Amino acid sequence: MILKGTNLKLSFGGLVAVNNVSFEIEEKTIFGIIGPNGAGKTTLFNIISGVYKPQEGKLFFKDKDITNFPTYKRARLGIARTHQIVKPLSELTVIENVMVGACFGKKNYNLKQAQKVALDVINFVGLSTKMFTQAGQLNVAFKKRLELARALANEPEILLLDEVLAGLNPKEVDSMLNVILKIKQNGITIIMIEHLMHAIMKASDYIMVLDSGEKIAQGSPQEISNNQRVIEAYLGDPKLAMQLVGAK
């Protein structure tokens, strides 16, 4: 077990964003998180990465209690993330952006070491033709890859992907999914939030479903796609409900 959350709870004023959520994630798997808008998915990511501290509950990384660890300390342990809204350093080149991830990541590389790591990661995610392009000049698809590359430069054991497929066309989605599956093959545990049902059903080993801050289901993609409560949770968004039913 690489990551475990027990009875996690976080409220903002009178709004309960995450309510008594527990989970266990096996090493070297892809663990998908789905749910309608406002379900608490990104809030849970922020708890895992250390942006927010839960008001109740505990979080364990390899049996170590990291509930009170700040973000940088979790990064040094090997927890990296991407963001739903990509945040490149726009005036820096692609390779400079990725080097930042290596310099301030798990192993705190010097510039020469960071450059080597960055080159390897850039080639891995398919950004070699854009290596010296300013990040601000990239289109959405390449910015998503850059966000992924910068997280990978941390050499994480757990990678949190927050809607990394959002805004991509079908060809770009397939290409990014291939990269994600290769990351898993390299032994990295992936936790991903995604609204594209066919994609997360294809990629995930296990899926947890949140609704209004609560965990309503967890299981294999097949189990989730046949879960009536999960389908009902998506009825407020007919497109997502149809995608979920279609995943059967």
Automatic annotation (TrEMBL):
Listed InterPro entries: AAA+_ATPase, ABC_AA/LPS_Transport, ABC_transporter-like_ATP-bd, BCA_ABC_TP_C, P-loop_NTPase
Annotated keywords: ATP-binding, Nucleotide-binding, Transport
GO biological process: D-alanine transmembrane transport; L-alanine transport; L-isoleucine import across plasma membrane; L-valine import across plasma membrane
GO cellular component, one term: plasma membrane
PANTHER family tied to this protein: AMINO ACID ABC TRANSPORTER ATP-BINDING PROTEIN (PTHR45772:SF7), CONSERVED COMPONENT OF ABC TRANSPORTER FOR NATURAL AMINO ACIDS-RELATED (PTHR45772)
Protein's UniProt keywords contain Transport: yes
UniProt xrefs under CDD domains: ABC_Mj1267_LivG_branched
Protein's name according to its UniProt entry: Amino acid/amide ABC transporter ATP-binding protein 1, HAAT family (TC 3.A.1.4.-)
Start and end residues of each ABC transporter domain: 3-237
Top-level division of the source organism's lineage: Bacteria
MF annotations from Gene Ontology: ATP binding; ATP hydrolysis activity; L-isoleucine transmembrane transporter activity; L-phenylalanine transmembrane transporter activity; L-valine transmembrane transporter activity
